Amino acid sequence: MANTKGPVPLRSNSRSNRARILAVARQQLSENPDVAMDDIARAAGVVRRTLYGHFPGRAALLEALTDEGTETLLDTLRSTLVPYDTPEERLARHVLAGWPVGDRYRMLLALARRDLGDLKITEALVPPREIVTATLSRGQKAGVFSSHLPAEVLATALEALGLSLLEITAQGAWDGTAAEAAVATLIAAGVEPAGAADTVRRVQSESNPQQ
């Protein structure tokens, strides 16, 4: 009698290969932006044909990594949606939780921007940006965030600020932390400095009650 379950392990193996390739590529490209596709295949333990079967070229690989990073950031931001918090607290949570994700994918975003173009990155970041925009809009209506810019424009500006701070940190020009980035973001959104610092400390203490 034929084994009708034969193809299932193959599909499972294919998914496993793809996940391993992406994980290895993320590490390799972060260490060496110009690493060759063949070197990624070798490091992932797959043959060249397997790599190109999943990703026909470097652009396809970078696009997949960009989508992975965006989805990770989106899931992270969704996890910060606490129903009882204030707009300032929610924005602080966005930055505190999103900072390590941004750090992990910072180099890949820069590569994707270079190889795929700004439009691809702008489009990929739309879902996470919408969450931040909603937080800013809520804060503007409450009078706690500056309203000199529309919420969607302010969200884009704060996104650029966060990416710049990550890049400066990676270059060693600033040894800032996620907390300091969160304070800077709140100030840029219109919160006075002392209040911004208090908000970040309060959010951190709620996340780490033992401290």
Describe what is shown at a glance.
The protein is built from 10 helices and no strands. It has 211 residues and is mainly alpha-helical. Helix 4 runs parallel beside helix 7 (126-142), helix 5 (87-116) crosses helix 9 and helix 5 packs across helix 10 (193-207).
Describe the structure.
- It is a single chain.
- It is built from 10 helices and no strands.
- It is an all-alpha fold.
- Residues 5-10 have low confidence and may be disordered.
The helix content is over 70%
Named CATH topology of the largest domain: Tetracycline Repressor, domain 2
> Uncertain regions: pLDDT < 50 for 5+ in a row?
5-10
Query: How confident is the prediction overall: mean pLDDT?
Result: 89
Overall geometric form: elongated
Instruction: Provide the CATH superfamily of the largest domain.
Output: Tetracycline Repressor, domain 2
Number of alpha- plus pi-helical segments: 10
